[in-house]
TrEMBL record:
Pfam family, one: AMP-binding_C
Catalytic activity: tetracosanoate + ATP + CoA = tetracosanoyl-CoA + AMP + diphosphate; a very long-chain fatty acid + ATP + CoA = a very long-chain fatty acyl-CoA + AMP + diphosphate
Protein's UniProt keywords contain tRNA processing: no
Protein name from the UniProt record: Very long-chain fatty acid transport protein
Protein origin, superkingdom: Eukaryota
BP GO annotations: long-chain fatty acid import into cell
Record's keyword terms, sorted: ATP-binding, Cell membrane, Fatty acid metabolism, Ligase, Lipid metabolism, Lipid transport, Membrane, Nucleotide-binding, Peroxisome, Transmembrane, Transmembrane helix, Transport
EC numbers on record: 6.2.1.3
TM stretches of this protein: 6-30
Source organism of this protein record: Aphis gossypii (Cotton aphid)
Domain AMP-binding enzyme C-terminal: 502-577
Gene Ontology CC: one annotated term: peroxisomal membrane
Protein's UniProt keywords contain Transport: yes
Length: 624
């Protein structure tokens, strides 16, 4: 039939392929294949390096000793308040801790709580205890009384090391602790010479040589307990093994392209995953320099970045909004920063932040201390928290499934299995659990009952299991993922789902970057829940009329908060997440709330909520 016939067949095939939408797949490959291949190569190279550590059965302390201290002992690892710590100094200090704890009868598998403010010694203490197999429970130093007792007891601590600045907090709870718990006080200044309870004196007498424990810890052994932030109740102690520490710090570093030459800056609490693993891990595993600040300062953030010539800086939660609210100054752009990394940079301020501070790249990530559904924005895509390959999704098996947004219960099909969301459809992200794969394991919490609450079964096949994150995400057509809200925070009003995270970002911007919490409240004789915003207004300068005008322009009617509460302050977790449970319980009950309250009246402005107006809302005389 010859060449003409063959050309006709090819032409018909091409037309049929295009008509059936095949061109979309070609464009998908064009748009996403380079990203996916680059990420895949980086991930497999990291797996290759991790496999070598596994064969040697090395712990984090072993990696530090053999790869960092041995090869570059005088490399500056930590900078704190202008004092430098070299790799050798960290090694010898941690050896002293290890030997001291052995001498006091602690052994592999014992748990010791660590309650200290940010400083290099914090790292040296838990690193030292890990050398003899002691698990360090990294406790939030902002906790007091009942919550502090809970954190110590839930981890089954046999000992507690605490900073002398927190002595009064420990004195308040001593009678509530188990009688057998050993307490050690540490001081940043010279302690009294006749007080043997100070860890400083014990360390002065301890040997800086490598310890020789009866039973050496290994690659898969427990390293740390790191607590969840406690936004929904008491903190839970998540299990971090040596291999998990290596995977969190290492996989992220490879994926986003962190460098051995980077100088890191972190003002975040070292007791949490973000700073304690993702940042400090770059020093312990790869020999990078980390500048540690005792506490976050919005005005001092870029001053420090500039002063210490940092090239990579860390953020979390509401930090970027606080920094953006500071007056402009020369240090805003007079720096060598090439990347900022963290989670919680809201899309509403993303572009303004990177523009004002001349930030070349943002490596936003998503994950949780205990979870296995961790992702990262590897290519500076605006607003994205990471991606899942549309071409080869099985390589990293995380998915977005349909759930009831209020209860987080999966919506199942006729076979009883979960259903995947389409692009643009919000759902909860889940990570498939594979116990033999370190990147897919779910180690859970010390409390196994709490662990089981985070596992969903019969996900896509009968008998399989996945980690249920509890976060609502949405994917676009290219596989990029965007944070929507926490399940339980999203509410429904006027037949529409309202994302509190999105509304909070808009309200905060209009209110001059003030702290803001949005939640749903019940209104009598109305279906769903109405939005309410609690806004911090310490100096009583918030203009509610300007706020109402701005919200009318920025938000659809169903998403506008119908109630406003002015606050002097709002409680925050140690990782800069705003707490809202108590506020939600108070609602707009004028009998319970002593702060100023406003409601959105029929004229579209916020009017002060009086006792009469409150009664009219409850009776239905005023309809919202």
């Amino acid at each position: 039939m010859g060449l003409p016939f063959l050309l006709q067949v090819v032409a018909v095939a091409i037309i049929a392929f295009v008509a059936s939408g095949g061109y979309k797949f070609i464009y998908l490959v064009y748009r996403t294949a380079p990203r996916d291949i680059r990420a895949l190569c980086r991930f497999y190279y990291f797996l290759y390096t991790a496999k070598k550590l596994s064969k040697k059965n090395w712990t984090v302390a072993d990696v530090f000793k053999h790869n960092i201290v041995k090869n570059n002992p005088h490399k500056v690892l930590f900078v704190f308040e202008d004092k430098e710590w070299t790799a050798l100094q960290v090694e010898e200090y941690s050896n002293k801790v290890a030997n001291a704890m052995l001498e006091r009868g602690f052994k592999k598998g014992d748990v010791v709580g660590l309650l200290m403010e940010n400083r290099p010694e914090f790292v040296g203490i838990w690193l030292g205890m890990s050398k003899v197999g002691i698990v360090s429970a990294l406790i939030n130093y902002n906790q007091r009384l009942v919550s502090l007792v809970h954190s110590i007891k839930v981890a089954n601590c046999m000992g507690l090391i605490y900073g002398s600045e927190l002595s009064s907090d420990i004195d308040d709870i001593k009678n509530d602790l188990d009688n057998g718990i050993k307490l050690f006080k540490w001081s940043s200044t010279s302690p009294p010479t006749n007080d043997g309870t100070y860890l400083n004196h014990i360390l002065d007498k301890a040997s800086p040589s490598a310890p020789n424990p009866p039973e050496k810890p290994g690659y898969n052994d427990k390293l740390l307990y790191i607590y969840t932030s406690g936004t929904t109740g008491y903190p839970k102690a998540a299990i971090i093994t040596n291999v998990r520490y290596i995977f969190i710090a290492g996989a992220y570093a490879y994926q986003v392209g962190l460098k051995y030459s980077d100088r890191f800056y972190t003002p975040l609490p070292l007791y949490h995953t973000a700073a304690g693993i993702m940042c400090i891990g770059q020093s312990l595993l790869y020999g990078c320099t980390t500048v540690i600040r005792k506490k976050f300062s919005a005005s001092g953030y870029f001053q420090d970045v500039s002063k210490y010539n940092c090239t990579a800086a860390q953020y979390i939660g509401e930090m970027c909004r606080y920094i953006l609210a500071t007056p402009p100054k020369a240090d805003d752009t007079n720096h060598k920063l090439r990347i900022i990394f963290g989670n919680g940079l809201k899309p509403q301020i993303w572009k303004e932040f990177v523009s004002r501070f001349n930030v070349p790249r943002v490596a936003e990530f998503y994950g949780s201390t205990e979870g296995n559904a961790n992702i990262a924005n590897t290519d500076n895509t605006f607003g994205a928290i990471g991606f899942v390959s549309r071409l080869i999704p099985s390589i990293y098996p995380i998915s977005i499934i349909r759930v009831n947004p209020e209860t987080c219960e999966p919506i199942r099909n006729a076979e009883g299995l979960c259903t995947r969301c389409n692009p643009g459809e919000p759902g909860v992200i889940v990570g498939k659990i594979i116990s033999t794969n370190p990147s897919r394991q779910f180690l859970g919490y010390v409390n196994n009952e709490e662990s089981q609450k985070k596992v969903v079964r019969d996900v896509f096949d009968k008998g399989d299991a996945a980690f249920l994150s509890g976060d609502l995400l949405v994917a676009d057509e290219w596989g990029y993922l965007y944070f929507k809200d926490r399940t339980g925070d999203t509410f429904r009003w006027k037949g529409e789902n309202v994302s509190t995270a999105e509304v909070e970002g808009v309200v905060s911007n209009i209110a001059g970057y003030r702290d803001c919490v949005v939640y749903g409240v019940e209104v009598p004789n109305s279906e769903g829940r109405a939005g309410m915003a609690a806004i911090v207004d310490k100096d009583n300068t918030l203009d509610v009329s300007t706020l109402s005008t701005g919200l009318q322009k920025a938000l659809p009617s169903y998403a506008r908060p119908l109630f406003i509460r002015k606050l002097n302050e709002v409680e925050m977790t140690g990782t800069y997440k705003l707490k809202k449970l108590d506020l939600q319980r108070d609602g707009y009950d004028i009998g319970r709330v002593k702060d100023q309250l406003y409601f959105y009246n029929s004229k579209g402005i916020y009017q002060e909520l009086t006792s009469e107006a409150y009664s009219d809302i409850l009776s239905g005389k005023i309809r919202l």
